[in-house]
Amino acid sequence: MNGHCGQFQSAPLSRRAMLSQLSCGFGALALGGLYASKAGAEILSRIASPGSLAASHFVAQVRSVIFLYQDGGPSQMDTFDPKPRLTREHGQPVPFSKAQTQFNNDGNLLASPWKFARHGECGMEISELFPHIATMADELCVVRSMTSEFSEHTNANYFLHTGAGLAGRPSMGAWCSYGLGCESANLPGFVVLDGGLTPPGGLDCFSNGFLPATHQASRMKPRAQPIANLTSHDADADAALRKRALLARFDDRFQEEVACDAVESAIANQELAFRMQSSVPELAAIDGESETIRSMYGFDAKDEATRIYAHECLLARRLVERGVRFVELTIPKTANDRWDQHSDLRKGHEDNARAVDQPTAALLYDLKRLGLLESTLVVWAGEFGRTPFAQGSDGRDHNPFGYSIFLAGGGVKRGHVHGATDEYGYKAVEQPVSMHDLHATILHLLGVDHRKLTWRFGGRDMRLTDVHGNVISGLLA
Asked: pLDDT over 70 for what percent of the chain?
C-alpha cells in the first residue's frame, strides 16, 4: 500500500521507474554525466530517495536542521534560567510539593554554583558555564518553558526524537528526510555525527521506524574515517562502474519478482553508498579549512572532548553546505559522562559545558559568516532538565516539568526569551512548550504542515506529532 500522505505533489518518477524507462543501470547514469550539472544532481537526488515528496506545503524559512542533542539533561537554572530566589534560599527545605522523578534521594534547595550575566544587545542572561555561546546571545531564541512527559532517560529520549515514549517510531530526522528528501545526490538526507556516546534508548532514537529504510540515519564519525568500509577496492574506475551496472540489472530483475520496501531501500542504500565513496572523503577533507577557522572551533583545545565536538560542529556545517536535510550531533564522553549529574554537579556540568561551548558558538558564528544561518535551524536541547533541589548533597534529579533549550537561525526570533518557569525553576508557568509543539514548529520552519506529513501504518495516518502539537508563533520572527 502506498504510504504517502497525499498532501504533496507527486514525484515525477520513482528511482526504479527512472532506471527502467532509461533501460539502463547505475553505471550508465554515472557515465551519462548527470553529476556534472545541477539539473542532473536534482534528478539523482529524486531517484535516490524513494518516498521523498516533491514540494513543501508552503514557503520554507530554512532548508536544513542541525540538532545539537545534549544527552542527559542539562540543568536549566545552571545554564539559561537564573533563579535569584533559589540563590537566596539555598539550603532551606523545599517549600513546594515534589513530584516523583527518577531516584528521589532528594535534599534541600540547591542554588546554582555559577553566576549569570547579561550578554549582547538583547541583555540575555546566560550562565558563566557558556562564555563562548554568550557571545552569540543576539542570535539565540531561548525557550525557558520546555516540557516533557517522561522523567526516565530512555523514554524521554524516544519522546524527544520521535514524539512517542516507546521505541519503534521514526525519528524527526527521518520524518524530515521522508518529507523533503535531500538536496544532495551523493549524501544521505539524515546524518548523525557520533561523538562517542550512544543515548539511552540506543539507535532506535535515530530510526526510520515504519518509514522506508532509506530514511534511517547514517552515522558518521567526526574524525579519521567517517564511515567504515566505504573505500572502493577497485583500482579501475571503469571496472567499478561495469560492476555497478551489472548489479543494477540483477537488482531490477529481483525487484520485479519481490516488490517490497526492504528490497527497494536496500538497493537505494547500496547505490547511495557507491556515490558516497567519493563524496564522504571530500566532506571529511577539512585540511582545506583555514587555521583560523579550525582554531575558532576548538581543534587546538587542550580538552579532548572539545576537540571531538569541534570536528562534529565543523562537519555539521559542511554537511548542510552540501544539502543534507537533518544533521544530529551527539556529545562526546567526558570524565563525568553525559549531562546526567545526580552527584558532583559542578564538575560534571563544567566538563560537559567545556566540551560543547566553544564549538557551538563557532558553528553559529561560521554559519552566519557564510550566510547559512538564514537557511539553517540550529536546535540545542536535552531530553529534560534538572530539579532545583539537591539530590544527595551536590547533584540534581531529573525534571521534565520545565527546562531550557535554545533555537537559532532562519525564521526564529533573535535575542529572545520565550516562557518562564516558577521562581525556583521547577515547573513551566508561562507559555509552556510541549515536545509536540517543538516538533510542529521545526517542521513549520521547513515549510511542512505537521498535520499533513503522514504515513499510513497500523490502520491510521501516523505523524511525528501524533494527534497533538501547535506551531509556537511566539518563537517565529
From this structure: 81
Give the global pTM: 0.86
Longest dimension (CA), the chain: 77
Residue 323: Cβ within 10 Å count: 18
CA nearest neighbour of 208 among 251, 176, 254, 165: 176
How far CA 183 is from CA of 29, 69, 72, 88, 324, in Å, comes to 18, 23, 32, 52, 6
Is residue 319 a contact partner of residue 217, using CB atoms and an 8 Å limit? no
* Grid cell locating 412: 526564529
The residue among 137, 113, 136 whose CA lies nearest residue 125 is: 137
Work out the number of other CB atoms within 10 angstroms of the CB of residue 392. 16
CA 377 vs CA 74, 258, 380, 397: distances in Å: 20, 40, 10, 30
- Report the C-alpha gap between 112 and 120 in whole angstroms: 22
- Report which of 357, 413, 349, 309 is spatially closest to residue 130, judged by C-alpha positions: 357
User: Any bridge partners for residue 143, and if so which?
Assistant: 405, 418
Query: What is the chain's alpha carbon radius of gyration, rounded to the nearest angstrom?
Result: 23
**Tens digit of pLDDT for each residue in 203-246?**
999 999 999 999 999 999 987 777 766 666 666 767 767 776 77
Local structure of 405: helix, strand or coil: strand
**The C-alpha cell that represents 339 in the structure block:** 549531562
Domains of the chain: 15-475 (3.40.720.10)
**Which residues are paired to 36 by β-bridges?**
none
Distance CA 250, CA 264 (A): 13
> For residues 218 and 191, is the Cβ–Cβ distance under 8 A?
yes
Residue 170 DSSP symbol: P
**pLDDT tens digit sequence for 351-398:** 999 999 999 999 999 999 999 999 999 999 999 999 999 999 999 999
Q: What is the DSSP string of 128-159?
A: TT-HHHHTTGGGEEEEEEE--S--SHHHHHHH
> What residues contact 28, with CB distance under 8 A and at least 6 apart?
22, 245
Residue 425 has pLDDT above 50, yes or no: yes
What string of H, E and C letters represents the secondary structure of 76-90?
Answer: HHHCCCCCHHHHHCC
Summarised one tens digit per residue, pLDDT across range 385-420 is: 999 999 999 999 999 999 999 999 999 999 999 999
Position 24 scores a pLDDT of 42
The Cα 46–Cα 9 span in angstroms is 13
Give backbone dihedrals phi and psi of 130, rounded to 5 degrees, phi first: -125, 65
